[in-house]
Amino acid sequence: MTKHRLNEDDATTIIPRVSLPETVEELAAAERAPRSRRSRRPVVIVAAVTAVLTTAATGWALAQPADQSTPVPGALPTAGSRSFVDGFGEVSASAEPPSRSWPRSPAARPSARPSAAGAPSVLASPGQPLASTELLAGSQRSLRAADRPDRFVRQSGGLASLVSVTLTSAGGVRQEATFTVAKGLADANCFSFVGVDGGYLRHRDWRIRHDKNDGSALFRADATFCVRPGSTPDTLYLESYNYRGYYIHLRGDELWIDRWRDRDHRFERECAFAVTAPWG
């Protein structure tokens, strides 16, 4: 044996021995073998790999904590679906909208849906204080400044203001201090206030006015106010529907809408109103 040839029986041989058909007949017999027998090895390999992957996936699932929950995606912040508008015209939707926070008084929460007025729940003399829940759609009511017992909201000359009203006041003054409570023009969960002449309390240029309904969406929004319970019993706040976080606020005897001021007790008192039996 030369150095260029390896012993066939040598265990250190590098090239594996390959079994080849010894005769042409054996080669032909191999070619005639059924295809299923020849392709059995790939099928076995695929089945084995599938079993391994299935076992691994099952083991991973069992290893997870039983109480693990899938997180729910939170809502994405948006700039709002509509613009806010006032007497100065439409504000761009890209502008920062007014705050939508409610007063931080512990009692300040959204009020219940207004209910239609039925028979009067109490028989009260004109100007007598009522529970704030007596503000009912379809009823006639007067609104008094909570910390000024003789001063009532009055519509006159296109503006709303406070006026002193007593049993001896002229009939015209008493009628001007009386409003029909209606479901909100822009939101039936809130209220609108109609004067004796059919005009509505509404805000424009931040001032509370008394105007005829022009049928516009802007007017309906300006004339809608949402009730929030006051910080003292049987008082309430009136929040602007389209300027959330802005409330009817007294500046002397004038009525405006101003942004809520946290921890300002004087401001809270100037925003509080009491419901009374109607004067007119």
Automatic annotation (TrEMBL):
Residues 92-121 have a biased composition (Low complexity). InterPro entries: AbfB_ABD, AbfB_ABD_sf. It comes from the Bacteria. GO terms for biological process: L-arabinose metabolic process. The chain crosses the membrane at residues 42-63. Residues 89-125 are annotated as: Disordered. This is Alpha-L-arabinofuranosidase B arabinose-binding domain-containing protein. Gene3D superfamilies: 2.80.10.50. SUPFAM superfamilies: AbfB domain. Residues 142-275 form the Alpha-L-arabinofuranosidase B arabinose-binding domain. GO terms for molecular function: alpha-L-arabinofuranosidase activity. It comes from Catellatospora methionotrophica. Pfam families: AbfB. Keywords: Membrane, Transmembrane, Transmembrane helix.
